[in-house]
Amino acid sequence: MANKLKLGLPKGSLQESTLHIFKNAGFTISPTNRSYYSKVDDPDLEIMFIRAQEIARYVEKGVIDAGLTGRDWVMDYGMAVIEVAELIYAKQGLSKVKWVVAVPEDSDIKTIADLRNKTIATELVNVTKSFFDKKNIPVKVEFSWGATEAKVPDLADAIVELTETGSSLRANNLKIIETIMESTTIVIANKNAVKDSWKKEKIENIVLLLKGALAAEEKVGLKMNVSKSDLQNILNILPALKFPTITELSDKSYVDVDTVIDEKISRDIIPKLKRAGASGIVEYPLNKVIP
Fold first, then answer.
1. pLDDT tens digit string along 20-56?
2. Residue 79 has pLDDT above 70, yes or no
3. How confident is the model at residue 130, as a pLDDT?
4. How far is CA 9 from CA 2, 3, 204, in A?
5. Span 97-183: which CATH code?
6. Mean pLDDT of 2-23
7. Cα–Cα 20 to 30 A to 135, which of 26, 125, 158, 170?
């Protein structure tokens, strides 16, 4: 029987961004609403889409060999899994997320000390309890099954909620009074799975490609023709991962210069390159950047 790596991917808010990153990493995954299992164009993989909150539990049990989930959920449930890598991305971009304490804008609660003996609603129960215990602030922490932002002030005095930009909290007239923790997506593996040399290498290969895809998200390739007399001026303008690739052209007085830059600076740097003598400037997207 051929080797298979059972991989759990997060269903829900992280699903689309995860599919996008895997696509750029070279994996085409086609989830279905009728099953946990998804089609993937890699015969070595068996993909399951599972709620991020549950992935660590299934990895610990060995139901799946590895998975992508939030560090927050691993901490909250205290699962005994191996953290293989950190992948900094969230629903809306390449950033970490925060679990914050929030209260209504017009609340008399100004600091977490004002929550003494009050009720907090959250999905992140254990981390929240631990946070307030360390601060010596007694609170009642209740598990929230969803719609947490709507539970204050009638059902709870405050909430601990996940936020990426804070916009949803502001839209619900809530203000942040404290950050409990930052979290990001991590790759975790079952302890026995990493003892299997084939599975360990397969996980490491996937991580390498995913990191390359993430590194490419905010970068573009740039190539241009440059006369040798203008080359040094062009190199003084160009940033690069290490050094640009310079290739001599059929016209020996010209070279092709190829490099990688941050996408956000391309609009500023391209006019400078043109004025410095570059021609035939081409900007192109990247799928992966492997250092």
1. 999 999 999 998 776 788 899 999 999 999 999 999 9
2. yes
3. 97
4. 22, 19, 16
5. 3.40.190.10
6. 92
7. 170
CA 41 to CA 30: how far, in whole Å? 9
* pLDDT band, residue 242 (cuts 50/70/90): low
Q: So what's the pLDDT on residue 166? A: 82
Residues of the chain with CATH 3.30.70.120: 219-285
The 3 state secondary structure assigned to 78-118 is: CCCCEEEEEECCCCCCCCCEEEEEEEECCCCCCCHHHHCCC
Q: Where are the alpha helices (DSSP H) in 217-289?
A: 231-237, 263-275
- DSSP class of 202: H
Residue 76 has pLDDT above 60, yes or no: yes
Tell me the CA distances in angstroms from 189 to 138, 195, 197, one per residue in order: 35, 10, 13
Two tokens, residue 76: 């909250």
290 closest CA partner among 219, 234, 203, 186: 219
At 179 the three-state DSSP class reads strand
Q: What is the pTM of this model?
A: 0.86
The residue type found at 153 is: P
- Do the beta carbons of residue 130 and residue 136 sit within 8 Å? no
CATH classification for the domain delimited by 5-94+185-216, as one of 3.30.428.10, 3.40.190.10, 3.40.50.2300, 3.60.15.10: 3.40.190.10
